[in-house]
Amino acid sequence: MVNKAIIPVAGWGTRFLPATKAMPKEMLPIVDKPVIQYIVEELLEAGVYNIIFVTGRHKRAIEDHFDLNPDLELHLERAGKKKLLGEVRKISHLVNPIFIRQKEQKGLGHAILTAKATLGSEEPFIVSLGDIIIKGINTIDIMRQIYHRYGKSVIILFEVPRKDVFKYGIAKVRKIDNDTFLVEDIVEKPSPQEAPSNYAVVGRYLFTPTIWEKLEKTKPGKGGEIQLTDAIKELLKEEAVYAYKIDRNSVFDTGNKLDYLKTVITFALEREDINGELLEFLREKIEEKAKEKDKKD
Ligand code: G1P
């Protein structure tokens, strides 16, 4: 049973400055739940409770979020706010978090390597990245099923428009059945011309322990950082890596301003307590903007 995961959360969040000057980008809310909680919930739903967070100096809020908060709980209890109390308690009661620090930010590959001593180098493990929320499908379950069938590493992919390939790791794949593929090559953030396909890495991985030695040997790559993608490229020389493609509509990127806003609006429109008025507001805004444009033209 693969039952441990690493979530790297040490990044600066420069795309969201100044909001992320004192607050971790992983704590940005999607309506009323921080992004990181969605990532953790996907793991918990799959029965993965042991989660190693690779954090940095400015990330204490994440530790507090997954800890008990007795004062707040008492306050909610006294105020009779049972539903909120349940919400606040649920997350900290289920997860077994381990926090370790990446002292220097040398890239995603380096962040994962930082967890090696804690996780041990004998067992397979999961890596979930904090930027992308996946809805309607549990990628952790899928990766484990594929792992149990083939005993090899697995990554999750989704199709992106060619113009967007530069934002992701991109894999060259060979189909084996329906949505399952074998990875033939992988490249970190290629230009549209260089990209071997438009199948992007969504940020969910299941690795065999062989990845450790590859990570240890990985030199700085794209952006001068030690890239996980480069270690996977090396892994491919030794072991098969499987991939599973999920529907684009299940993928919600929160890693850049525009996609973050689209995610917030999509999730808000599904919330019965606010969606009626929100839709009305959006309609009014669209009309207003159309009128402004007409005036200008
Ligand atoms: C990272 C990975 C990239 C992957 C992406 C998914 O990039 O390096 O391969 O496609 O996450 O979100 P980042 O978004 O951290 O720049």
Structural overview:
The structure is a single chain. The chain is of the alpha/beta class. The model has no long low-confidence stretch (mean pLDDT 93). It has 2 domains: 4-252, Alpha-Beta Complex (Spore Coat Polysaccharide Biosynthesis Protein SpsA, Chain A); 256-297, no CATH class. Strands 8-11-9-10-12 form a 5-stranded mixed beta barrel. A two-stranded antiparallel ribbon has the order 2-3. A two-stranded antiparallel ribbon has the order 7-13. Helix 5 packs across helix 9 and helix 8 (210-217) packs across helix 9 (228-238). It starts with a strand and ends with a helix. The chain has helices at 35-45, 60-65, 70-78, 82-94, 108-114, 116-119, 139-150, 210-217, 228-238, 257-269, 275-296, and strands spanning 4-8, 29-30, 33-34, 50-55, 96-101, 125-128, 132-134, 153-159, 169-177, 180-188, 199-207, 241-246, 251-253. The protein has 11 helices and 13 strands. The structure holds 1-O-phosphono-alpha-D-glucopyranose. 1-O-phosphono-alpha-D-glucopyranose (G1P) binds at residues 108, 129, 131-132, 168-169, 188, 200-203, 228-229, 255.
